[in-house]
Design brief:
CATH superfamily of the largest domain: Aldolase class I
Keywords: 4Fe-4S, Chaperone, Cytoplasm, Heme, Iron, Iron-sulfur, Metal-binding, S-adenosyl-L-methionine
Family: Belongs to the anaerobic coproporphyrinogen-III oxidase family. HemW subfamily.
Distance between the termini: 21 Å
Strand content: 15-25%
Subcellular location: Cytoplasm
Number of helices: 16
CATH architecture of the largest domain: Alpha-Beta Barrel
Number of domains: 2
Main location: cytoplasm
Helix content: 25-40%
Function: Probably acts as a heme chaperone, transferring heme to an unknown acceptor. Binds one molecule of heme per monomer, possibly covalently. Binds 1 [4Fe-4S] cluster. The cluster is coordinated with 3 cysteines and an exchangeable S-adenosyl-L-methionine.
Order of helices and strands: EHHEHEHEHHEHEHHEEHEEEHEHEHHEHH
Amino acid sequence: MPGTLVAMPGVLPEGESVPVDGSLPAAATRAVGARGFGVYVHVPFCASRCGYCDFNTYTAEELGGGAGRESYADTVLAELALARRVLADAPPPRVDTVFVGGGTPTLLPADDLTRILDGIDRTWGLAADAEVTTEANPESVTPESLKTLRAAGYTRISLGMQSAAPGVLAVLDRRHTAGRATAAATEARDAGFDHVNLDLIYGTPGESAEDFAGSLEQVVAAGVDHVSAYALIVEDGTRLAARMRRGELPYPSDDVAADRYLAAEAALGAAGLSWYEVSNWARSEAARCRHNLLYWIGADWWGLGPGAHSHVGGVRWWNVRHPSAYAKRLAAGESPGLAREVLTPGEAHMEDVMLRLRLASGLPLDVLDDAGRAGARRALDDGLLDPARYASGRAVLTLRGRLLADAVVRDLLP
């Protein structure tokens, strides 16, 4: 399938221990930010848990005492101070992008989100043209809070719409009404946001072609300059998975998901939005999410917050998951890092191929070995790669190729 919903994972991988002080190998810090440097801030709070969600998020009932929202900004700033110490000898030249994700970041007071952004600026300095994004659920923002965030320096907002069909929202356990997401998009533009994204999920059990077409119509009518659309995946341990096991809901269909993707491409393309990554469309190059592009090209970023992932110079690490454990480590002056891995050249190559092939700019053919180039030739013959781009030395997916992106990647790797 062309795209799946991704965010902070509920289960963390294994790896080697992170030093108590969070220090990194000298080789990792020699060229910090050479490809760009971003900061991700994870806010793990949600008002309620959606049925499909297995992300590292918590409701107030799940958290109990000692790890609430009130002190969260201070805890994030404590990790930021640690990050400054770790990179003291080789700080990034600037922060190109900031992305505040969740959870629902806008459950925090706008003043706390302002303090976090100010802290990042004081620590490393925001680039003059820095992209600063916050995610938000449509019901968690108001015209006043949006104006506060815009005045604080946030330039982009990503709203979790998911669908415009009430029945689909009910299956997903979303709390906002069908029209609230597009109304929030209008409020964000009125507040002065340069860029507004709406997220869609397709392939929800019970969603009809007409339901999805209606969602696309509302997105287009909202006039946003960026749209993300992801196929629903059902994760073990979620309420949605339990309902399917009981036979209350059917499992998603790959054929239906492919039809929905083609519908999205047709509707968004006709409205002037072009794909630049398999699951993302933008109205212009300036509207593309620069923070996500840092991930896709293997740049550096520091992830703040429980469960957050970071990558600097080929070293990737991830923090402890629970907000209480995260806060406890930082209060003791210790790194919240749970584990890390140093990518081998082979692993780095594999990730480079997997991620760059998803981009409309594609992958240079000369980074592939002989077997990979033979695989690219087969993909070209099967109509999965663009012939003109192939002739110019790049592997770029066709529309059919986007539907089979994972299969193409497998053919290009050893």
